[in-house]
TrEMBL record:
Name used for this protein in its record: Thiosulfate ABC transporter, substrate-binding protein
Source organism of the structure: Escherichia coli
Keyword terms: Signal
Signal sequence residues: 1-25
Source superkingdom: Bacteria
Length: 79
């Protein structure tokens, strides 16, 4: 009985470790003012590549949201 329980627990542990180690996609939202749109458009691709290299191949997608200060302020107030 104890051996069966040990086998089941060991199998469950191995399965959870295998599932926890899988590669998953990560998504970030880069939210800033209009004036920095080009800067982040240039910085994001190298950052995504470095992320994949440092995180075992995890794919990082960076979405961008750029607007003037008043648009952004009202969007946050309404949320």
């Amino acid at each position: 009985m104890a051996v069966n329980l040990l086998k089941k627990n060991s199998l469950a542990l191995v399965a959870s470790l295998l599932l926890a180690g899988h590669v998953q996609a990560t998504e970030l939202l880069n939210s800033s003012y209009d004036v920095s749109r080009e800067l982040f458009a240039a910085l994001n691709p190298p950052f995504e590549q470095q992320w994949a290299k440092d995180n075992g191949g995890d794919k990082l997608t960076i979405k961008q949201s750029h607007a003037g200060s008043s648009n952004r302020r009202w969007r946050f107030y309404r949320a």
